[in-house]
Amino acid sequence: MKKSKNTPNSLTREWMQQALLRLLRTKELSEISVTELTRTAGVARVTFYRNYNDMADVLFDYLENPKHGLPVPGAADFYLPQFIRDYFQFFHDNRALVFCIQKNNLLPRLMVTLEKNIGAQSYYLIAAYGFENPYEVSGLVGIFYKILLDWIRNGMKESIEEMSMVVYGIITKFNCVTLQ
C-alpha cells in the first residue's frame, strides 16, 4: 500500500474506506470494482491507484486508521486488561469486516496488521508490565492472534469479557505480567 501524510490525500483515502464499507454491506469484496468504489467515494479512478494496489489495501488501511481502526491507547491510559478488551470489542463491533477478511483469505495479513499495531505498544508493555524484550511482546501477539482467530472461526459466540479474560488469564498464568 502506498501511504502519504498529505491531508487531502488522507481525506480521499478515508472516503474510499467508507465507500468500501458501504459496498461491503451488499456485495462481496471480490465483486467490487475499482470503478464502483471510486464512484461511490466520489473520487477519480487514478486516486485509487495513487493510494492502493488492491481492495484489500483499502480494507487494511481502514484497520490501521487511528481515527476509527484498531485501538491505539496512549501512555496515560495504557492498561493491559482494557487494551485486550478494546481489541475484542473492536472485532466484535466490526464482525462483518472480520468475516470479510476471513472469507477472502486475508487472515495472515490481519496477523501482520496486529503485529504492527500491538508492536507499536511495545514500549508501554515493556515499561508498565515487565515484558523484558520485543520477543515477549511477539509472544503476546501470537497468543492474542490465535485466540482471536479461533473466536472468529467459531462465530464469536463467547462474550467480549470472556475472551478478554481468557487472554489475560493466559498471560498472568505464565506470570508474564503483574496487575499494575
Keywords, separated by commas or semicolons:
mainly alpha, Arc Repressor Mutant, subunit A
What does this structure look like?
The protein is mainly α. It folds into 2 domains: 7-63, Arc Repressor Mutant, subunit A; 80-173, no CATH class. It is built from 10 helices and no strands. It has helices at 7-24, 34-41, 45-51, 55-63, 80-93, 95-103, 107-119, 122-129, 134-153, 160-173. Helix 7 runs antiparallel to helix 9 and helix 9 packs antiparallel against helix 10. The longest helix has 20 residues, at 134-153. The chain is globular. The model has no long low-confidence stretch (mean pLDDT 86).
Précis, in short:
This protein is an all-alpha fold and 180 residues long. The chain folds into 2 domains: 7-63, Arc Repressor Mutant, subunit A, CATH 1.10.10; 80-173, no CATH class.
Number of helices: 10
- Return the structural class: mainly alpha
Give the tally of structural domains.
2
Major beta sheet summary: none
**Quaternary status:** single chain
Low-confidence stretches: none
Give, in order, the helices and strands. HHHHHHHHHH
- As a percent range, the share of helical residues equals 55-70%
Detail the topology: elements first, then pairings.
Elements: H1 7-24, H2 34-41, H3 45-51, H4 55-63, H5 80-93, H6 95-103, H7 107-119, H8 122-129, H9 134-153, H10 160-173
Helix pairs in contact: 1-2, 1-4, 5-6, 5-10, 7-9, 9-10
